[in-house]
Structure formats: structure tokens, C-alpha cells
Write a structure and sequence with these properties.
heterodimer; A: about 110 residues; mainly beta; seven-stranded mixed sheet; four-stranded antiparallel sheet; 11 strands; B: about 110 residues; six-stranded mixed sheet; five-stranded antiparallel sheet; globular
Amino acid sequence: EADIYQTPRYLVIGTGKKITLECSQTMGHDKMYWYQQDPGMELHLIHYSYGVNSTEKGDLSSESTVSRIRTEHFPLTLESARPSHTSQYLCASRDNFNYGYTFGSGTRLTVV
Amino acid sequence: QKEVEQNSGPLSVPEGAIASLNCTYSDRGSQSFFWYRQYSGKSPELIMFIYSNGDKEDGRFTAQLNKASQYVSLLIRDSQPSDSATYLCAGNTGFQKLVFGTGTRLLVSP
């Protein structure tokens, strides 16, 4: 059973809207990550955090922003959505012993 | 050169055969490696990890690590159609982030 939750599961919105994708985990993990993945394509790291008040940009440039005010919560925000933001967004966390990531179910975003 | 490289496939095997998935890495400092399975439209799921040279077995899955040659492999015995998915190899470079390969698509035909 997943201990990392993403909402919404699917989202269709209009161009120019502000959106926040939610990610929460109940495992007490310090490290959390956001990935972007187009269908059939590789994972791209867009943001990560090593703990409260720590956020870093990933390998892929993204117009999104993140915050980490609480250990369990790592939301991703797009201030003005565009069709180029259409993709699947995956949140992951990692335990403090550096085992593998646990991924959430993902949010499939479509901007029309 | 990507830090973690995989053949994109597809790798096609008949049901009951052994599927062999391979991955090479460039960072000799990488300490541990992970194999994820990702079904179409779903999120990646961790199936194996390996830290030491040699083999590690878990049910039908065997992970192999050769640090001298910088390769990692995943063997799936008695392949089933339900094993059809994309398999992602990831290495831990020590910077607390995993570096993922592009994945190998596996097709198991009945």
C-alpha cells in the first residue's frame, strides 16, 4: 500500500491558470523529489528537497516552483499553465538510509 | 554520454524464457543500483536493489552487479506476459539523488 499520495490523479485545465499539484508522504522521509515524464519517455528530475525549507532545481529546467514547509508535504505549483506543461508529474520520497525511491501514483496534467 | 545507459528495446521474449536486461554506468563512485518496473501509464515500482558485486536473487528476479566492468543486469526467469513493462535502471551517485536510465521495454509473448 502506497504511503505517498498525489492529488489530483488527473487534471485538465485551461491555459494561463495557476495550479498546485499535491504530494504528501506519511513515512517521515526527509528527501522528496518531483519528476516529469512524457508517455514512453524517460524521467526528468525537476525539483528536489532534502528537508524542511530546503529546495533545489533539478536537471530539467522547469517553470514550476516547489515549497517544503512540512516534512510530509511537497507541493508543486505552476503560476501560469501552458500546453507545453502537459505531462505526467511523479512525486517520490526516499528514506534516510538511502534505499530506493517510493513513487506516488502521479498526476497526469493536460493544459488546453 | 549518459551516466546510466540502457538499450531502449523492445526486448521480446517468449513466455517461460529468461529475460536479460542490461545497464551500464559511467560513475565509478556509484555505490548502489536499483531496478524499477513501470507499466504503461503507471508510476515506477521498485523490484530489486543491489550494493555488492555478484548476484542477488529474489524469487524469479536476479540482479547482477560487476563494478569492475561497470554494468548491472536484471534476469527474469520464467517470464510471464504480466512482466511486460519498461524496466528502469538507476544508480546512486552518492549525491542523494538516483540517476535513472531511459528504460528498456520488455515484451513477453504468450
